[in-house]
Each structure stands twice: as structure tokens, then as C-alpha cells.
Amino acid sequence: MHTTPRSRPPTAVHDAPDPVPARSPVLAGETGRGGADGPTAVASLVETAAQALAEASARRGGPVPAMTPHQVTAMVDEALDTAPREGTDRSAEVLRHLTAVFAEGAADPSHPHCAAHLHCPPLAVAVAADTVASALNQSMDSWDQAPAATAMETRIIAELAELTGYRPGRAGGVVTSGGTESNLTALLLARDHALAARSELDPTRAGVAAARGTRPRILCGRAAHFSVQRAAALLGLGEDAVVTVPVDEGHRMRPEALHECLLRMREDGDTPVAVVATAGTTDLGGIDPLERIADLAAQHGVWLHVDAAYGGGLLFSDQLRGLLAGVERADSVGLDLHKLGWQPVAAGILLTRERASFAPLSRSVAYLNPTDDEEAGYPSLLGYSLRTTRRADVFKIAVTLRALGREGLGRMVDACRSLALAAAAQVVASPKLSLAAPPSLTTVVFRYDAGDDGDAVNARLRRTLLEQGRAVVGRTDIDGRVWLKLTLLNPRTTPEDVAALLEKIISAGDAEAAARNLKGAR
Q1: Per residue in 144-176, pLDDT tens?
Q2: How far apart are CA 174 and CA 349, in angstroms?
Q3: How high is the pLDDT of residue 195?
Q4: What residues form DSSP beta bridges with 253?
Q5: For residue 159, what are the CA distances in angstroms to 19, 120, 200?
Q6: Which residues does 128 contact at the CB level (< 8 Å), separation at least 6?
Q7: Which of 61, 124, 393, 449 is in the most buried spot, having the most CB atoms within 10 Å?
């Protein structure tokens, strides 16, 4: 059996590690991380950046710069044009100069009035861990580029799979760039699984299906993420291979409609490749009825993928994880920990109930993971990802899971959900606002009431708040009407913060409605 010896201090000259070579004279003025002085150089530059970041954020003063897009572009162009050029060790000066404009022109997700998107304020410990990952610059496509990171990702994936409800020791998974990559990878696996199953059909049945113009199909709710259509196109199936299933008023897929679609496909001779259930739609946060959908997927022998990029964070919460009942029956699940996990982008996860499901991605490449290396005990994660070079994003996730634990993250999820319920109650109590639906997760969708001018007023008031640097409010369309959206992912935001934000929205709506009435009177 292959074992790895514990590290030990050198006991003889021949045991000593090779000395770090002196830096090349060509790089004498360079302040990169490499070499024995690397960590000190990084620490100094990080301190410089942190000071510039704090100063620029204070100058900005609000959640977003009080500028038009044209003004932001002009500011960036000027900063790039006037940045110090190459010289003797001017890295700190360039970093300070460009950090200032980058931060002053940023949308700040830690500000309580920056609440438009699934754009979380990252935990400080995760940001620090992300800096370590950047400094070490590991690549996850071979063990010898990322020894500890390979072991760490394997372990963390196993823990998240168990949290999801998968059987220990059997599940597979990989860290991804987010929900779009997770959905694409899952549907690739589902496509190859479906084609393999179809090749085992009775030849007569397969021939009849071909004669009737059979084609692969992917089913999802009408409120599913647009990346499902993109994935179908990238996989060569075409966007029109995606069949959208009707949803209810909460944007949840209707199981009876899914059943009818599956029956109709069978009658037409088409091949259902996958059912994509959504656990947390982008707008209303709707969670499809996973148990009933899992029953139908099993009945029809179709791969079930759950896109839990938004709602997957509920797994951390004792109070709310029941809303995901049935997720453990899916063939694959996508999670985004840069949403309800408070990680710096990117921190996506794709999990499969069976590790063998990743077989279509398996590759043996001589310069990365030769077979004899793997047989000798050097594992490779190359066959789990669509990417080759892939940074060690698992490190910040691992640090966060150990620093806060499931319980700590769960309390943050609960706080954001409670905040959304309080915000919805404030909307309902306002005579000038209308609520689209009660919150399912942490989004609150509403609109300023302005009669026949409602769509134009809501669209304009949002841009006004942006131009004034006062607030970042989301926007969406439901049933052809413009609605506003608060996506509440900051556990430090209070109901009083939300009340102040709603007052800004009402004030901007009043001003826009009055301006339109005055213009109409003329």
C-alpha cells in the first residue's frame, strides 16, 4: 500500500532541501512573490492596497460612484493614461494609483444600500485566504502543481456532498467558476449518460425513433437561469432543445406540467436528456418542488440536475434546509458559495451523486497525469473539470468552513432571510409600493405605484439613484411589467437600513412621477 511519510526536519546534508536560488539580476527591481522575500513583498503591497482602498472608498462615500457610465469611463481612462510607467520598482506607486480609481468607481456589496444582485460582501477571512491562493498560484490540473490543494479539494468536496445528503464515499464533485459552469458541466454529463443509455436500446426501437426525427431535449422551468439555454447551445443541442415547463405564481415548476411534457416527448420519440430543477430562481427565489420532480425523473429514467446556485446556501441553516428536501435525490447539484456562502468570486461547486458520472471528462495526459503516476498514488483532478488551468479556489472555502462552521454560516443565512421578510413587510405597509410575492429566499420584488406610467417611472428612478450614487437597486420584468428588486445578502444590514433605502426609492419615484406629470401638463 502506498503511504506518504510525515515531513521531518533534515538530519544530514543530503536530506536538506535545495536552497532557494538567488533572484535573477534581470528581476532585481521586481516586487513579485517569488523567492525568499516574496511573502514580505506581498505583505507590503497588500498594506499599500488596503490603505488606498480605504481612502478611495471613503471618497466615494456611498454604494456606487455618483457618476454616469460616460463619467466612469473617462475617470478610468485618465487613471490608465496617467499611471506611472515602468521604472525602478514603481509597483507600489502603480498599485496605489490604480486601486484608488478602481475602488472609487466600484459598486460596494458591503454597503447596505447596494442590494441589486446576487453579489455578496465577502468575509474578511475568505478574502485573506484568497490572497494566499493568489500568492501561491497553484493550478489544479495536476498533483505536482498543487499537492495540498488537490487533497484539500477532495476533502472539501466530500464534506459538501455529505451536507447535500449524498452517500459518503460515492459522490463526486469539483470546484467551478459558478452556476453557469456547473450547469454546463452537469448537462454535458447528462447528455453523454442519455446517449449511452440510448445506444443500449433495442435496435428496432432506436430505428423507429430516428425515423420520427428524435432529438435530445432538456426540460426546465420557465424561470430557470438563462445558462441552461447557453449550455444547450454549447453542447451542440441548440437552444431550441430546451423545453420550458410552466411555473406557478411563485416561479416554481409545476410537476403536472413536467409530467405532460415528458409523456409528449416519449410519444414523439424524443430523448429527454435532463430535467433541470431550480432551487432559488434569480428574481423571486422560487424553489421547485424537488421531491415530486425527483419522482418524475426516476419514473421516466431522466437525469435530474438541481441548479441550487442561489438556494444551496440553505443547506447550512437548520431552520431552512428543509426547503431543499429532495435535493439528495438529484444526479447532480450546483452550488454557488459566492452567494449565500460569502466567498469572493469565484466559488462554485458541482456535485454528483456518483463519482463515476464524471467519466466523460476523464483524460490521461502524459505531461499532467500519466497512468503510472496515478497508480503510484499521485491523484489528479483533471478529469473533473472543463478547465485545465484552474486556481485553488477551494482554499478560501476550506478556511471559511473551519473558521465559521456550518452553524456560523447558517446563522448568516437565517439573518438574511429574516431581513427579507422584514423588508417585504415594510413594502406591504407602504401606500406607495406594491409587493410582487412573499420572499422565498432573500430577494424582495416590488414596484413604485405610478399608475399608467409605472414601468417608465420605476425604470427611471433606478437609474437616477445610480447616477446620484445613492443606491444600487435591481430591476426585472414580470408579466411584461417593470419591477424593482432588493437582493439582501448582507447579514449586517438592519431593517432600519432597508427602511432608509425604501425611503430613497419612494423619494426618487415621487420626483420622477412629478416630473412626468409636469411634462404632461405642458
Answers
A1: 999 999 999 999 999 999 999 999 999 999 999
A2: 6
A3: 86
A4: 247
A5: 38, 23, 35
A6: 399
A7: 393
78's CB contacts (< 8 A; 6+ apart) are none
pLDDT digits (tens, 9 = 90+) for 390-433: 999 999 999 999 999 999 999 999 999 999 999 999 999 999 99
Gap between the Cα atoms of 89 and 279, Å rounded: 50
- Number of CB atoms found within 10 A of residue 369's CB: 21
Instruction: Please state, in angstroms and rounded to a whole number, the distance separating the CA atoms of residues 106 and 114.
Output: 11
Q: Which helix (H) or strand (E) holds 38?
A: helix 38-60
The 8 Å CB, 24+ separation contacts for 369-378 are 369/142, 369/143, 373/143, 376/2, 377/2, 377/4, 378/143, 378/144
Residues 492 and 112 sit within 8 Å (Cβ to Cβ): yes
Helix (H) or strand (E) holding 272: strand 271-278
Which are the contacts of 91, defined by CB distance < 8 A and separation ≥ 6?
A: 30, 31, 45
> All domains of the chain, ordered by start, with CATH?
34-106 (no CATH), 138-392 (3.40.640.10), 406-521 (3.90.1150.10)
Question: Which amino acid belongs to residue 74?
Answer: A
Tell me the pTM.
0.91
Read off the amino acid at residue 68. T
In this prediction, residue 317 carries a pLDDT of 98
At a CB cut-off of 8 Å and minimum separation 6, what does 506 contact?
430, 432, 433, 448
Question: How many angstroms separate the CA atoms of 390 and 176, rounded?
Answer: 9
Q: String of b and e for 278-302 (b: at least 16 CB within 10 Å)?
A: bbbbbbbbbbbbbebbbbbbeebeb
DSSP state of 377: T
CA distance 425 to 496: 13
